[in-house]
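Why predict the complex rather than its parts? Because the way molecules touch one another can change local conformation, and only a joint prediction can capture that. The input here totals 576 residues.
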Amino acid sequence: MVVKKNTIYRLLCVLVFAVMAIICIIYLYNKPENPEAEVHEARLKISQAANITGPYAESLLYAARNYYDSAIEEWVSQNQKIILFRDYSKIKDFSRKATFMAELSIGTSEDFRKNMLVELNANQLIADSIAIRFKTHFSSLPLNEEYRNTEFQALLKLEEGRIAFEKGDLMHSKKCIKQALDSLAVLQESIEYELKEYFQQHNTWTKWVQETIDLSKKEKSAAIVIDKFGQRCHVYQSGRLIASFPADLGVNWIGDKIKSGDKTTPEGKYKVIKKKKGTETIYYKALLINYPNNDDRERFRQFRLQGLLHNRDEIGANIEIHGGGGKNIHWTDGCIALNNEDMEQLYHLVREGTPIVIIGSLRPFDQVFTNNIHAHAY
Amino acid sequence: MKKKILFAIPSMMVMLYLLAGCAKVPQAEIDAAVAAIDKVKTAEAALYVPDQLKALEDSLSAVKVAVESQKSKLMADYGQVKNTLAWISTQAPVVETSATKQKEQMRTEIESLIAEVNALLEENAGLMLIAPKGKEGKVALETIGNELNAIKTAVGEVQNASAEGQLPVTIDKIRAAKVKAQSLKDELNAAIAKTKKS
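Output of the joint prediction:
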């Protein structure tokens, strides 16, 4: 009985030993290589990419993270199996792909960042040029409050973009600069559309000017041409230009005068009806013109008939070329103001009856507004 | 005796394997570390101390790799994993405090900038009163008045956004408003100086 017990014990031990040995042999023979190195490399690359990439190559980084997560999930899944049946090949494959995508994301984002810096620098220059253009071309225009507010908001956004750029927050900078550029472009389009409408009268203006110069030539007399966009008062004698003075106009100087108080300088063919000096004027010397003329009265009547004017609206009067100007801004209630020295000269060059033509511009639209800002790209 | 030793060896091997296989993943510590990082995220660390938060997240990520790596071995050893988890749990509150502090600093800076812009707006309002009026000044003053109103609106927007916690973006806006308010002040001062000269 004792022998039998010992034999069973021995057999059992041998069996356990044999099983263990077989397991060890199989394990050592099929031992799956731990994927730690590959996963570790992928993790480090993704971490590095996250530092550099930020928002510049998000989709690539996203893909890298997806591969990495798949690798980890696969690893967890394999580790749940019996050690002899584990297969880490997919984990390594996913990890290598994750590493590749992360490296690609780093490379792409570095390129993207460089390009973005160039693009943002360019956009800032474009934005600056637009701001300058607005200042040179549009600052003297009598824009409505809404336009001015849009312009200022855009400039404020531009400044915000500049600050974000200096801080290195390129994405926010890009967003701000783009918003500013978009606003300014839309604003410029609206302004230019209105101006182009206005400049459709250019042929009429040219005709009026020619007729006035021809008359001056024919009658060997003086004639005055007021060029609103040129901000000049030109004086002709016998059809020849003999003097040209800078002129200040009405606050709302673009367009034709419609009614009293609109602060617009009228447009049309007029003549000097009175020369004023001394106590007759508070602006040094003045030339009163025959506003409203028949055309003005007819237009006023039509506007009233169309209900565009209130009954209490009046057509206005007392439009003059007077002194007290030379301020280089448009400030009058509709008159044309020259500096006193120029006014003195003009006063002596003309007489009562001298023709005056007031027009929007001597030059056509394209010459007044040359560079177009629509060409910018971002 | 020899026979007993001979038989004991495989038994001990089996025991050792079982013991090693039974080394437990420190799940409680991992859960605690995840919870600690979540708490740090709630404190908006991603906005205010992104690098510190990233260090914590990287460590947790390394822990996950190490855990799986140990599971892949015949004899798992979670000693290093436990050390890293302990570091995360100790560091997380520090990062949380740092985020809160950073946020407060930024809020204080924004409030200070708002106060500066408001002071500039007040100064500008005062300058508007003594700026040259006349017909020619009136137009310019109206424009400046509108621009000052736009800055006031921007300040209001900054205050609202700041109250909603959008501090990092808000700070650029208030800085831009300050630059513009200052330039309007310079413009007004220049106009006043010009009048005094003439």
